[in-house]
Backbone:
């Protein structure tokens, strides 16, 4: 058997994972998506192959997924990000029954079976509320980098309740709390709690069932993991690979395709 | 009798001084900058200076808008629906439908010939369709607010925006810029998107002529054209429609003051 790759072109970042014979991760890449998605996809693949110390000819099968999957011109297969996240989450945490994927521009709750197949899903892709973008905008309004706000939110003493759903209004709400002298850490805790609330209501549409696995870029935010855990009253699976689960799932789908092809 | 109307909106404080409920003596406005009460004081002073009237000569003050309860010296406060509707009917007596696009909320109401609100619908949950969206576009497109409308009029093939969310629309617009879409087409797309949001509110209350646009975007020729094209009928606009809610508040203040003056002593305060 041979090396496979999965490329996940999200709204904000491109992820690529290269898997070896025993589905061990050989290499991965994460990069920002710009305007030229076709080129960004190409670069994400090259970076992950370089990370694995391989060359392009070593990769026998490439699967694309994500919001920009139709702009990947080099692969053999295209799979929706919903089944890729399901597959990837089930691979890392076999007990997963609900996958929560909070990405840059949308949020999904996916209920899966023990084989990692999608049973039901709900998503918000109409509005930035409750997505990574919401955190981005609010972090900027407070003068922080989005990478540091999760840890800061955990230092809060008393969370400030953020009532706006709309990202634009939340931004003004945050600014008004700052001008009233509220501690930014307390505001951040309120923002994280607000997203956890929205996420839970999305999860309730597919049914909340343990284990819950948190994927997508926002799963790297420790404050968000804690807020979700607190709101659920149950543990939440996360891994350093959580952000790559779409790409990982894509690679796994590719591997299955090779196996199925070989058997027939 | 001189009555004052103050509209403490989410983005701008507007004020009107009115004589005998009929004649506009002064109008002015200032951005609220997070301190609407202080700004309202300045607005009142400025109105007095323009009309050459001492603050004590204002017989009755009526407030409206988001911050209407924050002014202690008010004699009366009315909701923004009531005041906008009254102001619109004062400016255009045949108005049956009022569209009010503000900084943070957009509303539409059907009105009776006397300016009473019959039915209304509002969006205050989301920035799509509100003035704040236009302000943000102005910032990232680097086109001053007052130039957006005139520039949009040059559009030949407006670039429609598919995202409803103001934040996601931002990404879409930036992509359009990167793809080389002409600026007027992008700007007209912004106004069409706002008009479509307003249109869906209007349909809810029922569309009937005459339609009057009031509030923050009334001075924007791009918005007026987009709304006209979307609704498919003429839309009344006037410079003073920017102050419609403050004007309506001053008119309603005048009627209340008259009633109080006519009431026997000891009744009605």
Residues:
């Amino acid at each position: 058997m041979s090396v496979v790759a999965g490329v996940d072109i999200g709204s904000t970042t491109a992820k690529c994972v290269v898997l070896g014979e025993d589905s061990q991760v050989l290499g991965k890449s994460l990069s920002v998506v710009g305007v030229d998605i076709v080129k960004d996809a190409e670069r994400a693949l090259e970076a992950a192959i370089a990370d694995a110390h391989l060359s392009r000819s070593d990769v026998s099968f490439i699967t694309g997924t994500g919001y920009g999957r139709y702009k990947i011109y080099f692969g053999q297969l295209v799979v929706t990000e919903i089944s890729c996240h399901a597959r990837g989450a089930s691979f890392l945490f076999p007990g997963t029954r609900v996958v929560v994927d909070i990405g840059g521009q949308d949020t999904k709750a996916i209920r899966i079976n023990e084989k990692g197949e999608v049973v039901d899903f709900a998503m918000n892709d109409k509005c930035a509320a409750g997505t990574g973008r919401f955190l981005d905008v609010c972090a900027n309004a407070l003068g922080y980098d989005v990478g540091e706000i999760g840890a800061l939110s955990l230092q809060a003493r008393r969370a400030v309740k953020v009532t706006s759903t709309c990202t634009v209004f939340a931004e003004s709400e945050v600014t008004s709390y700052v001008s009233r002298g509220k501690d930014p850490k307390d505001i951040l805790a309120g923002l994280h709690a607000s997203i956890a609330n929205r996420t839970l209501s999305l999860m309730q549409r597919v049914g909340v069932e343990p284990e819950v696995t948190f994927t997508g870029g926002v799963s790297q935010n420790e404050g968000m993991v804690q807020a979700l855990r607190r709101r659920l009253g149950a543990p939440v699976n996360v891994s350093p690979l959580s952000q790559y689960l779409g790409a990982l799932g894509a690679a796994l789908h590719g591997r299955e395709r090779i196996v199925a092809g070989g058997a027939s | 009798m001189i009555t004052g109307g103050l509209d403490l909106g989410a983005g701008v404080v507007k004020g009107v001084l009115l004589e005998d409920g009929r004649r506009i003596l002064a109008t002015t406005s200032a951005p609220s900058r997070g301190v609407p009460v202080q700004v309202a004081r300045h607005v009142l002073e400025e109105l007095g200076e323009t009309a050459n009237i001492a603050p004590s000569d204002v017989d009755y003050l009526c407030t409206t808008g988001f911050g209407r309860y924050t002014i202690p010296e008010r004699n009366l406060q009315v909701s923004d629906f009531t005041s906008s509707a009254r102001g619109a009917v004062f400016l255009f007596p045949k108005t049956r439908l009022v569209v009010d696009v503000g900084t943070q909320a957009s509303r539409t109401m059907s009105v009776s010939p006397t300016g009473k609100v019959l039915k209304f619908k509002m969006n205050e949950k989301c920035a799509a369709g509100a003035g704040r969206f236009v302000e943000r576009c102005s910032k990232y497109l680097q086109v001053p607010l007052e130039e957006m409308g005139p520039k949009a009029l040059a559009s030949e093939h407006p670039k429609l925006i598919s995202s409803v969310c103001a934040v996601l629309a931002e990404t879409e617009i930036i992509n359009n810029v990167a793809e080389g879409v002409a600026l007027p087409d992008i700007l007209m797309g912004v106004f069409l998107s706002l008009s479509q949001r307003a249109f869906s509110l209007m349909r809810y209350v029922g569309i009937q002529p005459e339609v009057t646009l009031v509030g923050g975007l009334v001075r924007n020729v791009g918005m007026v054209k987009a709304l006209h094209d979307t609704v498919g009928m003429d839309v009344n606009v006037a410079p003073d429609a920017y102050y419609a809610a403050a004007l309506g508040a001053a008119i309603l203040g005048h009627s209340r003051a008259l009633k109080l003056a006519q009431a026997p002593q000891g009744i009605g305060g």
